[in-house]
């Protein structure tokens, strides 16, 4: 990941040209280079050619959906942070996205201020237990993410939701085939997380 003052690169993947342009204009600056892809297949090609610090990926696209692209990316061993964007995010999509290590969700239409906040939260080094826990979760280290938040007095609702989600993701049941999709408690927790975003 790029340090402060160095260049960072973001890949924006969406089949809507207007949205790609708006995201590019909002994020590009002297320290941030932005590239675009029109679908998941083109994104995978670009990601095979060079490394990116972050991918903003639309969920629903022709040819190859965002989740299918993330699944193929992870199968290749690439754990580049991915933020999923969608106007139609379901709980099942959110559960699958978390399993693939998607680091955050943005609901369309996306306010550009919120876009910058989420992107900076992923790309800029932070401090404190919440940042450290999310950093571990981005690397699919759910047990470590849970251990980082357990000592924190969770008066903040967002921290409580993440704590419960990490606890659920780190549970032995989630390591079993089908466990990730069969737990109604986990679905409710992720549903609250998605609705809070």
TrEMBL record:
InterPro entries: Bact_response_regulator, CheY-like_superfamily, Sig_transdc_resp-reg_receiver. Residues 9-123 form the Response regulatory domain. One of its GO terms (biological process) is phosphorelay signal transduction system. PROSITE patterns: RESPONSE_REGULATORY. SMART domains: REC. The modification 4-aspartylphosphate is found at residue 58. Keywords: Phosphoprotein. This is Response regulator.
